Amino acid sequence: RKIRQEFLNFFQQKAHEIVKSAPIVVKDDPTLMFTNAGMNQFKDIFLGIKDPSSTRVADTQKCLRVSGKHNDLEEVGHDTYHHTMFEMLGNWSFGDYYKKEAISWAWELLTEVLGLDPDRMYVTIFEGSEPEGVSPDEAAHMEWRKYVQEDRILKFGKKDNFWEMGEVGPSGPCSEIHIDLRSEEERSKIDGATLVNADHPQVVEIWNLVFIQYNRKADGSLESLPQTHVDTGMGFERLLMVLQNKKSTYDTDLFDPAREFLAKKTGITYEEATEPQQIAMRVIMDHIRAIAFTIADGQIPSNTGAGYVIRRILRRASRYGFTYLNLGQPFMYEMIDLLEELYNVVFEELTQQKEFIKRIVLEEEKSFLSKLERGSRMFEEYLRDHRDEDTIDGVFAFRLYDTFGFPIDLTQLMAREKGRMVDMEGFQAQLEAQKSRSRAATELKTGDWVEVNPSSDLPRFLGYDALELDTRILSYREVQQGKKKAFQLVLEETPFYAESGGQIGDRGMIIQGDQKIRVLDTKKENELIVHLVDKLPQDADGTWRASVSPNFRKQVTLNHTATHLMHAALRETLGTHVEQRGSLVSDKLLRFDFSHFERVKLEELQEIEQQVNARIAQGIRLEEYRDMPIGEAKAMGAMALFGEKYGDNVRLIVFDPDYSVELCGGTHVQNTQEIQLFKFISESSSAAGIRRVEALTGTHALAYLNEQQSQMGAIHELLRQPKNTVKAIEDLIERNRQLEKELQALNAEKVSQLSGALRQKAEEVNDIRLIREVVRLSSSDDLKQLSFELKRSEENTLILLGAEIKGKPQLSLIMTDDLASSNRFHAGNMVRELAREIKGGGGGQPFYATAGGKDATGLPSAISKIVEMI
Ligand code: SER
Q: How confident is the model at residue 641 (pLDDT cuts 50, 70, 90)?
């Protein structure tokens, strides 16, 4: 706490404004999933798209490097100084000071304020790149000479000393400060300068000073920015390691609570642990932080996008615990308390969301552990069925990976324990195939913007007041998403609402004379409002009429206001633990996720519905404040959502100051009466501790009720207009149950009769007793029962049955135990071969196997082929 504060104080004294960390989960930027550097939140300022509130700022930023250009995930745990989530201490100049101050202040802070030994430091500078047209960084070199000896100023190329945020975006040469923490003895043997940038765990980078002066464009070229900027980032955990004299970031006091916890849980202290156990402990200590902070910022583990990355991180930690530390029960959720105590001074989101995060983590752990268990069982079965094989099929390993979340190294480990190997080539081939399938479907390639009317101002959104206006096209571009080509367009002023806060983007037209361009969707890219259109203009110059489809907007707006009313009603009815966790407001329906720990009962839903409809009928007028200081808005009762960025001034939407007060950028009705009607259509669970409701408004709600009514009418007719419909259906179900029971009894009788007849027909082939027959049965279950029945109290017998069940041929091959243990036959292998006759496949265990196919006419030949096989 003290060190973090010292950093911030230092820059505050140098006239920097201290700002908050941006959320760790990035919204509205297609090039980035998570915040990977302190500078992300300032991207638009660097690019000259947005003006800064202050030209000097400093902060500590939560960063996550697990995807995209900066990805350290695989190293984490295996080495002693990388992290997935880490804090980056940074100071920035937006067109203000440059290299001289950045370098001298960094030096002053490290050596004078924090007291690091200058003799242990090395600095690196950019050596220049001819192909990029960037010359060596002489200015930084000159500056460093004032503090550091020449032989400690090292030059490196693009990989180390040219910083880029991603494939496109702000970039520039950088200068890094490295520190050598080795013992005097080691230092005298090997010159520290040779270990810089060489992955030595004790000679590490601690601070990166980036001199932002370019924008990397999609075509790969560098464009000079109108102004030069400073972006510095110092790894907080590494700084602690240096100041606390430790060999690893994991040995600093930041990780003490987690270490002690793990020691208690496992009975093994970190110091005593074997190397794989230490790795596992580091993985867990690291990953739990990434998990806690991303969930706190609103990202819930899921099967797609950012949610999937989080799920994988969580599973990686859980799996290391399971494999190396024998932690077969959920345990990570307990670590959230420890993190909260550690971070409550800086990151209040952990404090406020603690219970919620715990629940989510616990549920995820439980579900993954049960998958591990199921997968392990499948693995055992596989081994039994493939007793004679040394290698484990790559396709099977991939299935474990894909369906049960088994990381491949876990499968390899389990295989090794059984003296087998995994066919890694086969596995890789499957993995590649899957990757390229999903890449082809989602890869986004953007062309550069073609500027029609260059402007340094951000496009303006005027759609709160107008659905139609005359404007100019600023720029357009082509994008390629998977196989699909799409087009995008930016307007100087626009009535189109860009998707945000759950409200979907506006649709409509942009027209000039005969040129009619359809707007399919509108999205934000940082602060830019991007219209997704069906084609590019032939001639973009001149004035264009931009109009939002009024009906579309109206439907969306009804749903948005209804969402606010419902949110208030939910909190009033269920309690104030209800917090928004996700929201979709479209022209068709509204969907709302919120924290609540049990089903919302029907009576509760009805009560909420009634309350919302009463508010609608009351005709409450909209009170809208476009530019209210955030403090004032909070004082009026507005709640800020975690993971959302808010400016100093906010938009406040009020429907009755005593009822619904929300921070919101969306569009709303003038009077609640416009909504007419509100109707829930579903209530379900969306994730652990989160419920999801869907509802309709206006004519959609009415249409839904009508549809329900006609369905009821049809049911009533089908049941021949009973007095009590529910009772009639109950009777029907009961009768059905009776009939099924009777049918089962009949089938059992048939099976036993059949078995008697078939026993009579047993033949002898090569000293084996063989029963084979195509029988008439109506379910696979019956076929199985008959097979087992025939095997009962027999010896030396093979039974092959065929049947056409629901139009498809099936085979069942079983043998008596004595035959099975003689190892002369393998039912699985035999049935696989027989299945060819019915154009199908199958398999199973050595004593019993089944097959299914497509061609029932092949059943007799399968039945005769067994004779040859024997
Ligand atoms: N953007 C640079 C980095 O992330 C410095 O903050 O290393």
A: confident
